[in-house]
Amino acid sequence: MKKSAALPIALICLGSVWFLKSTALLPNTSTLLSLLLAAAGCLLLIIDGFNKSTLVSSPLLIYAGAAIYLRDNLGLQFSHLLSLGMVVMGLLMLLARSDRIPERSRGWRALQDNQDQP
């Protein structure tokens, strides 16, 4: 019986991050977090498709990444960023009420249900 590969993979990942951080090749934490949030918003839109749910959540993830970046690099105040975020969220929620925007499809759940059936 083979042993789990979790420990070697964790050591490789931690060693790589430590190496990149010690050689200053890894961006600072807030920049990395903002990039990951923006990437998650784009990936969610690609995976789940355009629907009422992703119309709100994807742009908000991208906005959160941009807000973190702007706060860290330009020194904008959180109150400005949060108030603008509330306006953006409200506009997106109103836009998602349109009948032209498709409802959330079953997507992955439908695919999984079809695979479970014999």
Description:
There is one protein chain. The protein is mostly helical. The protein has a domain of 75 residues. Helix content is 75%, strand content 0%. α2 packs antiparallel against α3 and α3 runs antiparallel to α4. The longest helix is centred in the middle third of the chain and has 23 residues. The chain is flat and about 55 Å long. It starts with 5 loop residues before the first helix and ends with a helix.
Biggest sheet character? none
Strand content: under 5%
Helix content: over 70%
Order of helices and strands: HHHHH
Supply Rg: 20 Å
**General form:** flat
Number of contiguous helices: 5
Low-confidence stretches: none
Distance between the termini: 30 Å
What is the count of β-strands? Answer: 0
SSE class: mainly alpha
Rounded average pLDDT: 87
Helix-strand blueprint:
Elements lengths: L5 H17 L6 H20 L3 H23 L3 H19 L11 H9 L2
Throw out a few tags for this protein.
118 residues, mainly alpha, 5 helices, transmembrane helix, membrane, transmembrane
Summarize the entry for a quick read.
This protein has 118 residues and is an all-alpha fold. The chain has helices at residues 6-22, 29-48, 52-74, 78-96, 108-116.
